[in-house]
Structures are given as structure tokens and as C-alpha cells.
Protein: Synaptosomal-associated protein 29
Amino acid sequence: ELVRQGEALKRTEQMVDKMDQDLKTSQRHINSIKSVWGGLVNYFKAKPPESKPEQNGTPEYYANSRLKEAMMSSKEQESKYQESHPNLRKLDNSGFKADLVSSVQRDSYPKNQHLRAYHQKIDKNLDEMSSGLSRLKNLALGLQTEIDEQDDMLDRLTKKVETLDVNIKSTDKKVRQL
Structure:
């Protein structure tokens, strides 16, 4: 949703830039109509550079890399989570992994078999929680970065719109005087 909003902001900013360019062109035409001297000044004055047209009418917008990485990592972790979740997994292959882990870490758990199994289950649950929290943290950091970038874009857009509003009022006043 944030990426879609970023795309909309980028399109809006480009439309405001286009409107500003069109307004400058109209002001040049008003100066030409207003007097002969204004027409001569506009003739010798350099023309404003024209912006490049957008490809297929859709501007390019790229979400920040931190958000993209967090989303990709989240999708990878989600598939791993679904494979290991008791209600979502199709095949139970955790026995092999548990035997391998228990043989490697047998010394770190208590001697009592039931207590050892309980500790291993707790460790496994803590690992899953840690993985989930890591995923949430990465997503939150990516979202924060994207929101900060869009906030800066909104500030720029607000300034441009305010300037454009003043220029439109000025141009409207000049047209009414003609």
C-alpha cells in the first residue's frame, strides 16, 4: 500500500511540475500580448527547457531498498514458517532435525529425558519467536524508511503547490487586466 501511495505521490509531483512549466509558458504569452516590448523580450529570452514525456504515461517509482529487502525476507521467512507450523505443514520431517540437533547439543541439556525434550521444545519455540520478531523488525524499519521518504516528498510537493497557487493567482490577475 505504501508503494502504491509513493507512486501516486510521484505522479502528483510530476503533474505539478508540468503545471508549473505550462504556467511559465502562459506567462510568456501574456507578456507578448501585453506589449510589443514584452514580445521582444520574450523573443530574445531563452526558452525554458521542456521536460521529457513520461513513458506510457506512468512515471517510474521505486520503493526504497530497505523496504524491498524486508518484504523479500519476510516472504522467505513466511514460507519457512508455514513449512514448520504444526497446522500448516504437510510432512513431518522435524524428527530427523530434532535427532540431529539433540545429538550435537546433548551435553547442553539436562540428563532427564523428559526435561531435555521440554528444553528443546522451548528452544525451538524461542527460535521461531526470534525469527518472527526479526521479520517484524525488518518490516518496521523498511516501512519507517519509506514513510520518511514519502514525508519528504509531501513537504516538497506542498511547497511546489503553494508556489504554483501564488503564480496562478498572479497570472489570473494579469489576464483579467488584459
In short: Residues 1-12+113-177 form one domain. Confidence is low (pLDDT under 50) at residues 53-59, 89-93, 100-104.
